[in-house]
Design brief:
The chain contains 21 helices and 29 strands. The chain is of the alpha+beta class. The strands form 5 sheets. Strands 1, 2, 3, 4, 5, 6 and 7 form a 7-stranded mixed beta sheet that branches. Strands 15-14-13-18-17-16 form a 6-stranded antiparallel beta sheet, with helices on both faces. Strands 20, 21, 22, 23, 26 and 27 form a 6-stranded mixed beta sheet that branches. It starts with 6 loop residues before the first helix and ends in a 9-residue tail after the last strand.
Length: about 725
């Protein structure tokens, strides 16, 4: 934090406030996530009630991810999940990676800026609802954390620590060094054995009875994890029982066989400081797949750590959309999961290696590696693609034996080259690299290879999506006017925002048609649907309106002629349209509407109101439809705003209320009237159109400005 003398105190105060929040609210696990500066990623900063290793799969959460902490920050609201069933329904990806009965709350931590989110977890035995007092306490605690972060971030950064999350004990000052002699004597007198594990899973105490039953001395076991120091407990099922006890805070029991034939019952009793374990001989051999007792639900036996990361990342890969999303996910979540510092994604294209994304490399290194032939001897990537076989190099010495120039280009010291294979066909290569030598364990190689298959399919889907998006974007841009004509005395600005769902294409359109030195026609419309058919019909409507307007038809006749054309085409799609003839010399506007929302009129004093336009029916319904004409003054200083319903329609909101809200936002916009582009940008921000959009949006702003002279746009 830049050397401020107040920083250690701020860090300690933040730790204390965080620990008090977790303890007072009665949560078993707490986590504080902070936004990474300059990135849309939440990073785990403080943790209580669990080990950093256990939380590793969730150490970095993309702000756009469908996860409770991301939603809390993005939507600026408290997220409450009262049960595993509710988690499965609301956050299926999180439920798959966290398959334990628990309750969860995530709340935003906002101060002078958006800092991140507080995550709290409880065992499932608590009530499935949150009281008002609990909600208020969490919100006040978040404000307290935000104030401390504001103080620590006076230099632009949070009081963060390097090297991953800091684990804070929930009970400050609690002595965890060991029991007193009286307690030790009490434990020794009990039948069977007793031992204690910390939240990292390490032995912190063993009675003599436990050592006898486990077959090891205390010196051999203290400080180790059971599944590492006792080979007969090195099974994913047993490790997951510990994981279930830590995360659910429920007692867990299981039976294990100590070779050759000694069966033991192990009972785990967790709390905020660790796990107490009772070990007693089992009276009979258990069934082949023992279920945990003392819990209302079982958990899937998987290797805690790597395989849970694989599940979590696999679920994330199924939800990415474009190629850049895949690259960002690998860089933000997969690279940290394996401790890698470098990433290169390359695809086989016309016999060459085309790099599609990278992190942790210099542009100069990428320039040397891009577009190499597949049979290059400069890097193993081409060979990995051609053979479909992964290659691992633990050091520069190993790499130099076969590819002597590769280390000099990248400057890395260890590499994993993983071919991306789809239906038996290698299509690219994924490279993870390390700044220091790195030994790849058998488990690590297996997980990387498995994950490479998921990355390959995610990239294949992403490329197809990007291709469709480029096609849709090109079609949309071809159908909308590239430039708007200039008319003396008329200021103009326009916007089109595609929907964020589907093919990123829709039927909204706008146009400005120059009819004379001081006259023009303005049109805006909305064809039903968000697909290629809607876009194609939009092009036909725009062409028809343009043709009728250029022929000198009155506004009602322009709409009537376009209506007849649509009925002849029988497209089974309806169209709304608003057409205006602007006569700047006479200072008036003549309007006709076909089921379209009314335009807004902003006066020089910023008073804004909807224009009362008598609407006719939608285009394409009634061949004999009549479109009433409305005439209003259009004197210097007046601004007209045309828009489509995608800007104002919100589920559950009355249309008149939505139009009134838009008029209020237009009146409050502080951009200079001459700056119509700035006016539109401010209006879009006020309407909250920067996030997900279920409908496309078109806007056209016109201002009578006698000082405006035609210039090339």
């Amino acid at each position: 934090m830049g050397g401020s003398t107040d920083e250690p105190a701020t860090r300690d105060e933040l730790d204390t406030a965080f620990a008090e929040t977790v303890r007072h609210i009665g949560a078993s696990i707490g986590a504080l996530y902070l936004l990474e500066p300059g990135e849309e990623v939440l990073c785990l900063e403080l943790l209580s009630g669990a080990s950093a290793e256990l939380a590793a799969p969730w150490a970095r959460v993309a702000l756009a991810a469908p996860a409770p902490v991301a939603d809390a920050v993005r939507l600026h609201r408290l997220v409450w999940i009262g049960s595993q069933e509710e988690m499965t329904h609301s956050y299926p990806r999180t439920a798959m990676a966290l398959p334990y009965p628990l309750a969860l709350a995530a709340a935003p931590v906002d101060g002078v800026r958006r800092w991140g989110a507080l995550l709290l977890m409880w065992p499932a035995n608590r009530p499935a609802f949150m009281t008002g007092r609990e909600r208020r306490y969490i919100q006040s605690s978040c404000r307290r954390l935000a104030r401390l972060l504001d103080e620590g971030g006076a230099h632009g950064r949070a009081p963060a620590r390097d090297g991953g999350p800091h684990v804070v004990p929930a009970v400050v000052g609690r002595d965890s060094a060991g029991p007193t002699m009286a307690a030790a004597d009490f434990i020794e007198r009990l039948p069977g054995g007793s031992c204690s594990l910390d939240l990292e899973g390490r032995f912190t105490y063993l009675s003599s009875g436990a050592c006898e039953l486990l077959g090891r001395s205390a010196d051999q076991l203290l400080g180790t994890r059971p599944w590492q120091s006792l080979r007969w407990l090195d099974d994913p099922t047993y490790e997951d029982r510990y994981r279930a006890a830590v995360l659910s805070r429920e007692p867990v029991s299981f039976t294990a066989c100590r070779p050759p034939d000694t069966w033991l019952e192990l009972h785990l009793y967790p709390d905020a400081s660790g796990i107490s374990v009772r070990i007693v001989p089992s009276g009979a051999q258990p069934p082949p797949a023992p279920a945990p007792r003392g819990s209302t639900r079982s958990v899937n036996p998987t290797r805690a750590g790597r395989l849970y990361q694989l599940m979590h990342l696999a679920a994330a890969l199924t939800e990415v959309v474009g190629v850049q999303d895949v690259i960002d996910l690998i860089a933000d979540q997969i690279m940290p999961a394996f401790g890698a510092q470098g990433l290169v994604l390359s695809a086989a294209d016309a016999g060459r290696l085309r790099i599609t994304g990278y992190r942790g490399y210099t542009p100069e290194a990428i320039r040397q590696l891009d577009a190499l032939p597949l049979d290059t001897r400069l890097t193993p990537a081409g060979r990995a693609i051609a053979s479909g076989i992964p290659a691992f190099f633990a050091s520069q010495q190993e790499m130099r034996r076969i590819y002597p120039d590769a280390p000099m280009i990248s400057g890395k010291n260890a590499w994993a080259f993983l071919p991306l294979v789809i239906s038996g066909r290698p299509v690219g290569c994924w490279v993870l690299s390390y700044d220091d030598p790195h030994e790849f364990t058998a488990e690590e190689r297996a997980v990387m290879t498995s994950l490479a298959g998921l990355v390959a399919h995610a990239l294949d889907r992403a490329r197809l999506y990007d291709t469709k998006q480029e096609l849709a974007h090109g079609l949309q841009q071809a159908l909308l006017p590239r430039t708007l004509p200039t008319v003396r005395g008329l200021g103009v600005a326009a916007r089109y925002l595609p929907t964020t769902r589907g093919m990123d294409i829709g039927g909204d359109f706008y146009d400005l048609i120059r009819l004379g030195e001081t006259s023009a026609a303005a049109v805006i419309g909305d064809v039903q649907g968000h697909n290629v058919a809607a876009a194609a019909l939009m092009g036909q409507v725009r062409t028809a309106v343009h043709a009728h307007a250029a022929a000198g038809s009155a506004p009602d006749q322009v709409l009537a002629g376009t209506n007849r054309l649509l009925i002849d085409l029988a497209p089974d799609l309806f169209t709304s349209c608003l057409y205006a003839h602007l006569d700047l010399a006479a200072g008036r506007v003549t309007l006709a509407a076909a089921g379209h929302p009314p335009p807004l009129l902003r006066l020089p004093d910023r008073t804004t109101r909807p224009v009362v336009v008598r609407p006719g029916p939608l285009l394409g319904i009634d061949p004999d439809a009549v479109y009433p004409v409305t005439e209003i003054p259009f004197t210097p200083g007046l601004t007209l705003l045309f828009y489509t319903d995608g800007l104002i329609e919100t589920p559950g909101t009355d249309l008149d209320d939505a139009i009134a809200r838009l008029a209020r936002h237009l009146a409050e916009a502080e951009a200079e009237d001459q700056d119509l582009d700035g006016l539109i940008d401010e209006l879009l921000r006020r309407e909250g159109t920067t996030g997900q959009r279920a409908d496309d949006i078109a806007l056209l702003a016109l201002r009578h400005d006698p000082g405006h002279h035609p210039v090339d746009r």
